[in-house]
Design a protein that fits this description.
The chain is mainly alpha-helical. The protein has helices at about 5-30, 35-55, 65-85, 90-105. It has four helices and no strands. α1 runs antiparallel to α2 and α2 (about 35-55) packs antiparallel against α3 (about 65-85).
Length: about 110
């Protein structure tokens, strides 16, 4: 097996498993923002599948590659997830933000 084929299979399976795990977390914990990560990994799976298959589809009537739209979708899902957990008390981003504000001499934001 060539390294490129192995890498393609590995990344595809990994992205699918991550998407399934975040879907399960979303249902189990009742936190809808986990579904945004499911969307991110769905878009990543599509991007890498097209890349490794050598597909270069274009948006009909333009020369814009569809992969750019899919990448935009992945970025938007990730940014919306980060926005959702920014003020979620106890989230990793909330703790990181508080730790940063404690160490710096900048006045802390109101919680």
């Amino acid at each position: 097996m060539q390294i490129g084929s192995f890498l393609a299979i590995f990344l595809t399976v990994t992205f699918i498993l991550h998407g399934m795990a975040f879907t399960l977390l979303g249902f189990r914990r009742g936190r809808p923002y986990y579904f945004l990560l499911t969307g991110t990994f769905t878009f990543l799976t599509a991007i890498y599948f097209m890349k490794f298959e050598g597909w270069t589809p274009k948006v009909p009537g333009t020369s814009l590659p569809i992969t750019w739209l899919v990448r935009t979708g992945a970025i938007l899902c990730t940014l919306l997830y980060l926005r959702a957990i920014y003020n979620e008390k106890g989230s990793w981003l909330w703790r990181l933000r508080r730790r940063f504000w404690k160490r710096s001499h900048i006045s802390r934001p109101a919680d």
